[in-house]
């Protein structure tokens, strides 16, 4: 199965997970059916962890904040623009905008109280969403030779950020699962959509073959000498 198809199906599956979690939490935010017991159990587990786990989680919270994530996203976008990777840039912006817009709509609509009782903005986790959108987006941009390492780092970063939010008692387990799935779904869906768009709009070669591989590259041929 081609990478575009894998990305599309993964995005659909993750979006379905987000939808299911959203419905369950919306039914009863304080104690969602099928989720409440797991949320409370996980909270009891992580709150018993040693002090170094909390210190590390506070560091991850700072790195995952908008003060870091927004400039990082802008930097990646600028580099893609300079390198004329226009489709990659479009996918990057689309994933960023979609993930942030959905999160901004769900937080007040669900109005779930954080486990520490400070705010009713727990669902979904914004930190987890941003970590997943950025990490998965960067993994999709990685060259083939670095792809395995990029995905390993991306998954590790997403898991660490999600875990840190529960260690600080600022999110329930279902909040961070939903946020991570949302960010990843947006990154994968944007990549798959633009890759499929290129395949549909790029003409086939004169010999009837498929267009050149590499969905992140623009189809414009490199200039060369006239025959």
What does this structure look like?
With 227 residues, the protein is mostly helical. It has one domain. It has helices at 3-27, 36-47, 51-63, 66-82, 86-110, 126-141, 147-167, 173-201. The radius of gyration is 20 Å and the shape is globular.
Let me know the average pLDDT: 88
Strand content: under 5%
- Stretches where pLDDT is under 50 for at least 5 consecutive residues are 199-227
Estimate the global geometry from the Cα principal axes: globular
Write the layout of secondary structure elements.
Elements: H1 3-27, H2 36-47, H3 51-63, H4 66-82, H5 86-110, H6 126-141, H7 147-167, H8 173-201
Helix pairs in contact: 1-8, 3-7, 4-5, 5-6, 5-8, 6-7, 6-8, 7-8
Question: Short description, anyone?
Answer:
This protein is about 70% helix and about 0% strand. It has about 230 residues and is an all-alpha fold.
List descriptors:
disordered C terminus; 227 residues; 8 helices; globular; mainly alpha
């Amino acid at each position: 199965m081609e990478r575009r198809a894998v990305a599309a199906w993964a995005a659909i599956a993750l979006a379905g997970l987000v939808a299911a979690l959203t419905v369950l939490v919306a039914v009863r935010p304080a104690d969602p059916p099928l989720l409440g017991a797991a949320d409370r159990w996980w909270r009891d587990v992580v709150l018993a962890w040693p002090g170094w786990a909390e210190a590390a989680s506070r560091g991850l919270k700072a790195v995952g904040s908008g003060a870091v994530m927004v400039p990082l996203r802008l930097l990646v976008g600028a580099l893609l623009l300079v390198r004329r990777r226009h489709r990659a840039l479009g996918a990057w912006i689309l994933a960023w905008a979609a993930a942030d817009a959905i999160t901004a709509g769900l937080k007040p609509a669900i109005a779930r109280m954080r486990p520490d009782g400070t705010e009713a903005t727990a669902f979904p986790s914004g930190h987890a969403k941003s970590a997943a959108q950025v990490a998965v987006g960067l993994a999709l941009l990685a060259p083939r030779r670095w792809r395995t390492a990029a995905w390993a780092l991306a998954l590790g970063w997403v898991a660490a950020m999600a875990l840190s939010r529960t260690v600080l008692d600022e999110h329930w387990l279902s909040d961070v699962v939903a946020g991570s799935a949302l960010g990843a779904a947006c990154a994968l869906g944007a990549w798959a959509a633009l890759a499929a768009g290129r395949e549909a709009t790029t003409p086939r070669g004169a010999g009837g073959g498929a267009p050149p591989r590499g969905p992140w590259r623009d189809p414009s041929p490199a200039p060369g000498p006239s025959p």
